[in-house]
Amino acid sequence: MADLIFDYDGTVHETLRIYEPAFRNTYGWLVENGYAQPKEISSEEIGHWLGYNSTDMWNSFMPGLDPEIKEKARIMLGEDMAERIESGQGALYPGAEEVLLGLREQGHTLIFLSNCRIHYMERHRRAFRLERFFHRFYCCEEFGFIPKYEIFRRFAPELPGPFIVIGDRFHDIETAAKNGLRSVGCGYGYGTKDELSAADIIINDVKQLPAAVEELLR
Fold first, then answer.
1. Over the range 150-175, which residues count as b (16 or more CB within 10 Å of their CB) and which as e?
2. Percentage of the chain lying above the pLDDT 70 cut
3. What's this model's pTM, rounded to 2 decimal places?
4. Superfamily of domain 3-14+92-216
5. 209 contacts 166 by C-beta, under 8 angstroms
6. Mean pLDDT over the full length of the chain
7. What ranges do the domains of the chain cover?
């Protein structure tokens, strides 16, 4: 058995369904109020920002924007996403529920590790009853927004291992690489091939995860 460290957005949760419309609404507000210029933004570009914590995202996406306006935009986008989750617009990837339940039933310890804020994590715990799957929950806000690979070092001594990191972005593969862990790159998420190139195994459907875990534990 293993301790499986899961990213959430783009790995378990099909986040673009709620993130893209919330992003477009927020950017529209920035344009309407003269804080940004109108421009075409592709779904791919919007998906690129998934996996970053929200403060880093706005600092990278619009570095020259007034800090007060950036914070307003960050809150607006987050509240829009929250409303969409509460109204049932969010969804886990097809097959994710069965995969997670199956891995837990096999005796693995499932760990939620996300670059999200506490309110986001708690809202999703309620909406999708995530306790059915995960034994432990960690998010970057609880640790002062330090990188995932450092958060791992905080909780790792409490668990026996071996550890496998599962995720779709460079933050996840970096967590594995910097801590000498094995990893599964989720090619169906929002990361690029380059981001996942150092993963031990790359899967293109969440349903392929059990076989990948089994292979890494041989």
1. ebbeeebeebeeebbbbbbbbbbbbb
2. 100
3. 0.92
4. HAD superfamily/HAD-like (3.40.50.1000)
5. yes
6. 96
7. 3-14+92-216, 16-86
